[in-house]
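Below is how a single chain appears once it has passed through the pipeline. First comes the sequence as given, then the structure the pipeline wrote out for it. We keep one example in the README because the format questions we get most often are answered faster by looking than by reading.
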Amino acid sequence: MSTHESETPSWGIEPVPERLRLLGTLDTGLLWGNLGVSLLVLVAGTYLVPALSLPDAFLAILLGAAIGNVMLALAGLIGADARVPAMVLMRAPLGRRGSLLPTAVNVLQCVGWAIFELLIIATAAAALSDELFGVSAQWLWTLVFGAVALALALLGPIGFVRRFVRKLTVWAVPVALVYLTWWAFDGAGFGSLWDRPAEGGLSVWQGADLVVAITVSWIPLAADYTRFSTSRRSAFVGTGLGYFVPDAWLFALGAVLFFSRDLSDPAAVPAAVVAGGFAAALALFALMVTETDEAFANVYSTAMSLQNALPHVSQKALVAVISAVATVGALAIDLVAYESFLLLLGSFFVPLFAVLLADWLLAGRRYTREDVFGAPAWRPGAITAWVVGFVLYQWLSPTGPGWWVEQVERLDPPGWGIGATVPSFLVSFGLGFAAAALGRRADPRAVGA
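Resulting structure:
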C-alpha cells in the first residue's frame, strides 16, 4: 500500500490536501459506475411496470436518470470544490449546528441502506448456493459480506477504486450486464413487450420520481468521495456519467425482466435469474459481488457523517462499529416495512440539495474553508427552506410507512401527476436563494466574497 493510500482512510473532516486528490475522471467514473450497479435498482425497475407500458417506463427512466444524475454530479462538483465530507459541507448553508439535522437523517439512511444491502446480497447468495449446492446458509453469507464491507470501508475511496474496482469489477460487471440483458430479451419477442398496454395507476413523472429517489439518495454521500477527485470537472463528469449508465441500464433491465419472465412479484427477480441457468446465475454472482460496494459506501459514509458531530473519534473505530451494527441488523431485522421508511428519509434530500446549490451559487460558485468552518451556528432561513421543500414533496407524493402516508393523505394531496421532485426542488431553491442572499447581505464577511 502506498503512503497516499494508507493515509486516505483516516482522513477526517478537514479539507483534503492536494497530495491526496488522486481520483481523476476515469477513477471517479469507475467508482460511481460501480456504486450504480445494484440489485436494488434492478428490482426497483420492476415497480414501473405494468402500471406503465414499456415505452413510457423507458421515458420515465431517462427523465429520472437525467434529473437525478445532474443533481448528483453537481453535488459531486461542490464536494470537490470544498474538499470536505458531505455533512461537513452542509455547515455552509445550514450553519455548524444546523448541519447536525441532515447529519442525523443521513446516519439513519446510511445505516438502514447498509443493512438493506447486506440483506439483498445475502438473500441472492443464499438463492444461488441453494440452487448450486442445495444449501442456502443465508446467515453465513450475511457474516461473510458484512466482513467484506468492513474491509472495503477501511480501504477508503482511493484504496477501494485501486484495489477492488480496477482489479475486479471493472471487467466482470460489464460482461454480466451484457449477458443478463441478452438473457432478458432472449425468446421474449421485443415487439410484443413494446406493444403491451399499461394497466395505469402511475404517470410518467411519478415513475421518474422513483428513479430520482434512488439516485438522489447518493447526494448526501457524494462529497465523501469526490473530495478526493483531482478537479471539479473530474468530479462532475465522473460522477454524473459514471452513475448514469448503470442507473438507467438496470432500471430498464428490471422493467424488461418483469414482462419477459412473467414475474408477479418484484422480489422474485433474483430467484428468476438463478433459475435461468448456470450462465445467468454466474452473471448474478458478479452483480452480487459488486453489490458489496453499496454496503461499503453506506458504512464509510455513516462514519464520515458521524465525524461531523464527533470529529475527534477514530474513523476506523466508527467504521468497525457501524459494520457490526449493519451485519447484526441484516441478521435480525425484517426490513420489508423499513424500506418505506428509507424512502421517506430519501425525500429530505432533494430540497436539501436545492438549498446547498443556492447557497453555493451565491458564494460565487466556490466554497472556502471559512465558508464551511466559519459559518454561524444556525442559518434559520435555509433550514426553513429545506423543511418547506420536504413538506411540499410529501404533500405532492406521500412516501413512507403506511401510517405516515395515511396521515399525509388527510391533507388531500392533489392528483396532478407531475411528481414531487421538480416542484420541491424549485421551491426550496427559491427560498434558499432568498435566505442566502439576505444572510450574506447582513454578514459583513460576505462582502466581496
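The first helix runs from residue 3 to 7.

See the next section for the split statistics.
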